[in-house]
Amino acid sequence: MIAATSIEVPHSSQVAMTVLDVAACILAKSGEMTAMKLQKLAYYAQCWSLVWDEAPLFDAEIQAWANGPVIPQLYEAHRGCFKVRPGSIAGDPERLTKDQRATVDEVLRFYGGRSAQWLSDLTHLEAPWRDARARSGAADGQACQEPITHAQMHEYYAGLGSKAGRTP
Fold first, then answer.
1. pLDDT in tens, 19-44
2. 69: closest CA among 107, 43, 103, 47?
3. This prediction's pTM
4. Cβ pair 59, 46 in contact under 8 A
Protein backbone atom coordinates (compact mmCIF):
# COMPACT_ATOMS: atom_id res chain seq x y z
CA MET A 1 0.00 0.00 0.00
CA ILE A 2 1.33 3.46 -0.89
CA ALA A 3 1.04 6.13 1.78
CA ALA A 4 -0.73 9.31 0.67
CA THR A 5 2.28 11.38 1.68
CA SER A 6 4.48 9.58 -0.86
CA ILE A 7 2.38 10.67 -3.85
CA GLU A 8 3.82 13.68 -5.69
CA VAL A 9 2.31 15.79 -8.43
CA PRO A 10 4.33 15.79 -11.71
CA HIS A 11 7.51 17.77 -11.22
CA SER A 12 10.40 19.53 -12.90
CA SER A 13 10.53 17.75 -16.25
CA GLN A 14 7.14 19.28 -17.16
CA VAL A 15 7.95 22.81 -15.97
CA ALA A 16 8.93 25.12 -18.80
CA MET A 17 9.28 28.43 -16.98
CA THR A 18 10.55 29.89 -13.73
CA VAL A 19 8.83 31.63 -10.84
CA LEU A 20 10.32 34.85 -12.22
CA ASP A 21 8.34 34.34 -15.44
CA VAL A 22 5.15 33.83 -13.42
CA ALA A 23 5.91 36.90 -11.27
CA ALA A 24 6.56 38.98 -14.39
CA CYS A 25 3.19 37.83 -15.77
CA ILE A 26 1.41 38.77 -12.53
CA LEU A 27 3.04 42.21 -12.53
CA ALA A 28 2.32 42.78 -16.23
CA LYS A 29 -1.37 42.04 -15.64
CA SER A 30 -1.81 43.77 -12.26
CA GLY A 31 0.75 46.55 -12.12
CA GLU A 32 2.77 47.67 -9.12
CA MET A 33 2.19 45.87 -5.81
CA THR A 34 3.98 45.06 -2.60
CA ALA A 35 6.56 42.31 -2.65
CA MET A 36 4.52 40.41 -0.06
CA LYS A 37 1.42 40.49 -2.26
CA LEU A 38 3.44 39.25 -5.25
CA GLN A 39 4.70 36.34 -3.14
CA LYS A 40 1.18 35.34 -2.13
CA LEU A 41 -0.22 35.65 -5.66
CA ALA A 42 2.61 33.50 -7.04
CA TYR A 43 1.89 30.96 -4.29
CA TYR A 44 -1.82 30.82 -5.14
CA ALA A 45 -1.04 30.56 -8.86
CA GLN A 46 1.12 27.53 -8.11
CA CYS A 47 -1.56 25.96 -5.88
CA TRP A 48 -4.36 26.34 -8.39
CA SER A 49 -2.18 25.23 -11.30
CA LEU A 50 -1.56 21.99 -9.43
CA VAL A 51 -5.34 21.52 -9.10
CA TRP A 52 -6.66 22.82 -12.43
CA ASP A 53 -3.78 21.98 -14.76
CA GLU A 54 -2.40 19.01 -12.80
CA ALA A 55 1.11 20.44 -13.16
CA PRO A 56 3.21 23.04 -11.37
CA LEU A 57 3.73 26.45 -12.95
CA PHE A 58 7.32 26.61 -11.71
CA ASP A 59 9.87 24.43 -9.99
CA ALA A 60 11.04 26.80 -7.23
CA GLU A 61 10.58 25.67 -3.64
CA ILE A 62 7.94 27.37 -1.49
CA GLN A 63 8.73 27.68 2.21
CA ALA A 64 6.53 28.32 5.27
CA TRP A 65 8.02 31.62 6.47
CA ALA A 66 6.58 33.56 9.42
CA ASN A 67 4.42 35.85 7.21
CA GLY A 68 3.09 33.03 5.06
CA PRO A 69 4.36 31.07 2.07
CA VAL A 70 7.48 32.56 0.45
CA ILE A 71 9.36 31.49 -2.67
CA PRO A 72 13.03 32.17 -1.82
CA GLN A 73 14.06 32.46 -5.50
CA LEU A 74 11.47 35.21 -5.99
CA TYR A 75 12.43 36.82 -2.67
CA GLU A 76 16.02 37.16 -3.91
CA ALA A 77 14.73 38.97 -7.01
CA HIS A 78 12.90 41.64 -4.98
CA ARG A 79 14.94 41.63 -1.74
CA GLY A 80 15.00 45.07 -0.16
CA CYS A 81 12.03 46.33 -2.18
CA PHE A 82 8.72 47.16 -0.53
CA LYS A 83 6.99 47.53 -3.90
CA VAL A 84 7.69 45.84 -7.21
CA ARG A 85 6.52 47.02 -10.60
CA PRO A 86 6.28 45.55 -14.07
CA GLY A 87 9.76 45.14 -15.54
CA SER A 88 11.47 44.98 -12.13
CA ILE A 89 11.57 41.16 -12.09
CA ALA A 90 13.78 39.52 -14.72
CA GLY A 91 11.16 37.12 -16.04
CA ASP A 92 9.35 36.65 -19.35
CA PRO A 93 5.53 36.44 -19.14
CA GLU A 94 5.46 35.21 -22.76
CA ARG A 95 6.89 31.86 -21.63
CA LEU A 96 3.53 30.94 -20.07
CA THR A 97 1.17 28.89 -22.22
CA LYS A 98 -2.41 29.95 -22.88
CA ASP A 99 -3.66 27.57 -20.15
CA GLN A 100 -1.07 28.81 -17.67
CA ARG A 101 -2.03 32.43 -18.37
CA ALA A 102 -5.68 31.45 -17.84
CA THR A 103 -4.76 30.02 -14.44
CA VAL A 104 -2.92 33.23 -13.49
CA ASP A 105 -5.90 35.26 -14.73
CA GLU A 106 -8.34 33.31 -12.53
CA VAL A 107 -6.06 33.65 -9.51
CA LEU A 108 -5.79 37.40 -10.11
CA ARG A 109 -9.55 37.69 -10.60
CA PHE A 110 -10.20 36.06 -7.23
CA TYR A 111 -7.24 37.16 -5.11
CA GLY A 112 -5.83 40.17 -6.99
CA GLY A 113 -8.05 42.81 -5.36
CA ARG A 114 -7.09 41.70 -1.86
CA SER A 115 -4.41 43.36 0.26
CA ALA A 116 -1.09 41.70 1.01
CA GLN A 117 -2.08 41.42 4.68
CA TRP A 118 -5.42 39.81 3.82
CA LEU A 119 -3.65 37.25 1.62
CA SER A 120 -1.06 36.56 4.32
CA ASP A 121 -3.79 36.12 6.93
CA LEU A 122 -5.62 33.72 4.61
CA THR A 123 -2.53 31.56 4.11
CA HIS A 124 -2.19 31.37 7.92
CA LEU A 125 -5.65 29.76 8.07
CA GLU A 126 -4.89 27.13 5.43
CA ALA A 127 -3.42 23.68 6.04
CA PRO A 128 -0.36 23.70 3.73
CA TRP A 129 1.34 26.59 5.57
CA ARG A 130 0.13 25.53 9.03
CA ASP A 131 1.16 21.89 8.53
CA ALA A 132 4.64 22.80 7.25
CA ARG A 133 5.19 25.10 10.24
CA ALA A 134 3.97 22.41 12.64
CA ARG A 135 6.25 19.82 11.01
CA SER A 136 9.24 22.10 11.62
CA GLY A 137 8.23 22.92 15.19
CA ALA A 138 8.33 26.66 14.43
CA ALA A 139 6.50 28.90 16.90
CA ASP A 140 4.37 31.87 15.79
CA GLY A 141 6.60 34.56 14.32
CA GLN A 142 9.66 32.30 14.32
CA ALA A 143 11.81 31.92 11.21
CA CYS A 144 11.14 28.71 9.29
CA GLN A 145 12.35 27.28 5.99
CA GLU A 146 10.18 24.16 5.93
CA PRO A 147 9.06 23.39 2.36
CA ILE A 148 5.39 23.33 1.41
CA THR A 149 5.17 20.40 -1.01
CA HIS A 150 3.21 20.13 -4.23
CA ALA A 151 1.34 17.20 -2.70
CA GLN A 152 0.24 19.29 0.31
CA MET A 153 -0.92 22.14 -1.92
CA HIS A 154 -2.74 19.87 -4.33
CA GLU A 155 -4.52 17.90 -1.62
CA TYR A 156 -5.74 20.97 0.24
CA TYR A 157 -6.77 23.18 -2.68
CA ALA A 158 -8.36 20.31 -4.64
CA GLY A 159 -10.69 19.97 -1.66
CA LEU A 160 -11.67 23.62 -2.06
CA GLY A 161 -11.97 23.61 -5.86
CA SER A 162 -15.32 24.17 -7.45
CA LYS A 163 -16.74 21.20 -9.34
CA ALA A 164 -18.60 23.60 -11.62
CA GLY A 165 -15.66 25.67 -12.82
CA ARG A 166 -12.21 27.14 -12.29
CA THR A 167 -13.11 29.31 -9.30
CA PRO A 168 -10.85 29.16 -6.23
1. 999 999 999 999 999 999 999 999 99
2. 43
3. 0.87
4. no
Spans of the chain, pLDDT less than 50:
1-15, 163-164
In 3-state terms, what secondary structure has residue 110? helix
Q: Enumerate the β-bridge partners of residue 63.
A: 70, 147
CB 144 within 8 A of CB 65: yes
Strand locations in the chain, DSSP E? 33-34, 63-65, 68-70, 83-84
Pair 72, 61: CB distance under 8 Å: yes
What 3-state DSSP class applies to 30?
helix
The rounded distance, in Å, linking the Cα atoms of 21 and 152 is 23
Q: How many CB atoms lie within 10 A of CB 7?
A: 11
Q: What is the pLDDT of the chain when averaged over all its residues? A: 88
C-alpha to C-alpha distance for 147 and 112, rounded to whole angstroms = 24
Phi first, then psi: what are they for 91, rounded to 5°? -130, 170
5 vs 42: CA distance, rounded Å: 24
Task: With beta carbons less than 8 A apart as the criterion, state whether 95 and 16 touch.
Answer: yes
pLDDT of residue 167: 54
